[in-house]
Task: inverse folding
């Protein structure tokens, strides 16, 4: 389990919340206003300013912990936005039965200035509704409304809106700054220990001196918690991102017939995208009605799957001396390689030139076909050579690229990174079979197998 260091009141374990320290000034003001309302009746309104992370929400929501005769609840924002001028009054009336006449009800509006700025003069409208509630005589109990804001200017707008009914304003310039800085280290330590079953920060390689340093440099206790949280998160494994992968299934082919059989499952002009209709039509009845078919289709779209024939006459020049890891592909061969369809897809230059159909001579006994006869047994070496070639061309590439998620683990034959593209990584899956004996059933089955593997990786279908 990763370490926990909650930075928001909502994320604190309920059992821990009573340990929160009160804000003495807020506590005293609430007690004084409660006494005033018992004598003069009516309601009170207190705008509260504090920097983000100062502890406003904790201080407000935990008033009921420190004052047993207080009931605190967040005010639903729909009541603030409502066009019905009686919405707030109706809500208060509907909750009267929840309180005793002597109990102080505190309703909290928590940092809503970001939204109300777009919706007209909310401060004036809200205060007018408070004034209407104050004059209605409806509340049989003392009520205090708190509006928490990170904007001093917005707090001043709320204060100004009470000019026609200043009696309800509890205080003009109230602010919360949070607990004293010397207490921050102890507060953060105790919060961490409680939420991690007694584990201390030192168990996560954060020493007291580290904690003190972060507290000294932070602007608020919330900022200090964030700094420590960032240090804790640096120790966690990074989240794998599979959203920018393009999956390319590569089919070495020796003749025109094999090219046609592979291209039957692709849309060549837009970049050999998988032709889902052609693939689905080739499936047997059982596969077409399978619950996993939707997951395969989702993987096809998510990984932008391509099905690309690769004439072996382009492959041979870059695959000389396969058993020599130090071999450097000659420039004449790399130049020719950069004209092949596969490379243009990998490099992200597909749209830069006009599409030209692939062609391969129908000659089963040429030298290149005799050379390829031994290649299926050397697929791993071919993958290593392709990775080395792309490294030679300036890309970051490797063979047997590992991709791990919470659902599965995949080893792609070759991974090629291109940071300037939206799909920054191309994953090549090589289908090195007898290049002149490729059948439609073989292509179909391999597409289905590859899609299933990546659908499981992404969690689209179960393992």
Result:
């Amino acid at each position: 389990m990763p370490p926990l260091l909650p930075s928001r009141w909502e994320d604190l374990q309920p059992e821990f919340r009573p340990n929160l320290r009160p804000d003495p000034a807020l506590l005293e003001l609430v007690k004084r206003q409660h006494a005033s309302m018992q004598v003069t009746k009516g309601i009170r309104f207190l705008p509260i300013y504090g920097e983000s992370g100062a502890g406003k929400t904790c201080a407000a929501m935990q008033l009921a912990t420190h004052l047993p005769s207080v009931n605190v609840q967040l005010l639903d924002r729909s009541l603030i936005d409502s066009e019905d001028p009686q919405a707030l009054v109706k809500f208060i009336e509907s909750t009267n039965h929840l309180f005793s006449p002597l109990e102080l009800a505190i309703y909290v509006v928590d940092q809503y200035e970001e939204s109300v700025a777009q919706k007209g003069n909310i401060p004036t409208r809200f205060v007018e509704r408070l004034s209407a509630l104050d004059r209605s005589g409806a509340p049989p109990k003392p009520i205090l409304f708190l509006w928490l804001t990170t904007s001093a200017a917005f707090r001043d707008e709320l204060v100004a809106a009470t000019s026609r009914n200043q009696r309800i304003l509890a205080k003009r310039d109230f602010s919360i700054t949070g607990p004293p800085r010397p207490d921050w280290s102890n507060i953060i330590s105790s919060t961490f220990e409680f939420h991690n079953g007694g584990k201390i920060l030192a168990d996560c390689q954060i020493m007291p001196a580290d904690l003190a340093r972060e507290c000294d440099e932070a602007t608020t206790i919330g900022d200090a918690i964030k700094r420590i949280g960032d240090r804790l998160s640096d120790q966690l494994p990074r989240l794998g991102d599979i959203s920018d992968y393009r999956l390319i299934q590569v089919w070495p082919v020796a003749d025109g017939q094999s090219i046609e059989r592979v291209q039957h499952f692709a849309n060549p002009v837009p970049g050999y995208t998988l032709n889902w209709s052609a693939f689905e039509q080739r499936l047997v009845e059982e596969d077409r009605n399978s619950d996993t078919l939707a997951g395969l289709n989702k993987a096809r779209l998510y990984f932008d799957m391509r099905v690309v024939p690769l004439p072996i006459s382009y492959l041979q020049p870059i695959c000389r001396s396969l058993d020599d890891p130090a071999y450097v592909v000659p420039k004449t061969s790399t130049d020719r390689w950069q004209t092949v369809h596969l490379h243009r897809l990998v490099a992200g230059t597909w749209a830069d030139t006009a599409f030209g159909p692939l062609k391969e001579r129908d000659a089963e006994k040429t030298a290149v076909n005799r050379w390829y006869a031994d290649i299926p047994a050397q697929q791993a070496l071919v993958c290593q050579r392709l990775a080395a070639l792309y490294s030679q061309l300036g890309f970051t590439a490797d063979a047997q690229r590992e991709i791990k998620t919470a659902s599965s683990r995949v080893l792609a034959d070759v991974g090629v990174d291109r940071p300037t593209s939206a799909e920054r990584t191309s994953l090549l899956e090589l289908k090195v079979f007898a290049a002149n004996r490729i059948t439609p059933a073989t292509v179909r089955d391999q597409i289905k197998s590859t899609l299933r593997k990546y659908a499981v990786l992404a969690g689209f279908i179960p393992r």
Q: What stands out?
A: The mean pLDDT is 88. The chain has three domains: 22-168, 181-233, 245-458.
